Amino acid sequence: MKTLFLLGGGGAIGSAIKALFIQQGYTVLAPRSRELDLSDSQAIVSYMEKFTSPVDALIFCAGHNDPAPIGQLTNQEIQKTYQINTASFATLVAHLRKQFEQQKKGYILGISSLYGSISREGRAAYAMSKHAMNGLIQTLALELGPHGILCNTLSPGFVMTPMTQKNNTAQMIETLARQIPLGHLAAPEDIARVAYFLCSEQNQYITGQDIVVDGGFMAGGFQHV
Fold it and tell me: Which candidate, 64, 63, 65, 61, places its Cα nearest to that of 19?
């Protein structure tokens, strides 16, 4: 039986990913924040030093996003966002690298965002962290590709999740839906299906890529919302 190590499995997208992989016969290891605190770098090291389960795929779906304009954005918030969204991911990969290399196969997927390519008012910390994640994945694809490990990011567009509803008014969500060619926000399951493809044996040759799943939103260029 194959095993997925999933971070952020308690969120809307993470829960959909977890359910789909279980449906496909995977064992899913998905520690919650009380078990693995991604905001604490030493806690991650301590957890991974005890982590011995072989894994076939790592999906990083955890995230922190607390919008604030640059004049109100504190250094502490920048550091917190970067630590949770990017640095913790790099630490996890560093600890799993040897195992993946010994297996000579594996999949690493970071759930990024449209804000890994573009941005929006108030999203400085979040956009910085997602741009950094995309750069990390490209580097991993180069370093780990010779060992048969495929590394990608998946960038959802606007997905109907509690975070989307927290950071956008109902009117803003309606405006977003009108600007998406398919006419609606994605469901978490839409993202999960692409994640499964990228981290299963269906994917044999896609690596170092950022796969955008946005209903066509980016095709017309980023429009002010």
Answer: 61
User: What kind and span of H or E run contains 173?
Assistant: helix 170-179
Q: Which residues pair with 55 in a beta bridge?
A: none
**Cβ atoms of residues 134 and 109 within 8 Å:** no
Q: Transcribe 151-167 into DSSP letters.
A: EEEEEE-SB-SHHHHHH
- Set 115, 126, 196, 205: catalytic member: 126
The string of pLDDT tens digits covering residues 9-32 is 999 999 999 999 999 999 999 999
Nearest residue to 181 (alpha-carbon basis) of 140, 131, 217, 225: 217
Catalytic residue flag (residue 205): no
* pLDDT tens string 105-153: 999 999 999 999 998 888 999 999 999 999 999 999 999 999 999 999 9
In angstroms, rounded to a whole number, what is the distance separating the alpha carbons of residues 209 and 112?
11
Helix/strand/coil percent split, the chain, to 5: 50, 15, 40
Q: Is the pTM of this model over 0.70?
A: yes
Distance between first and last Cα of the chain: 45
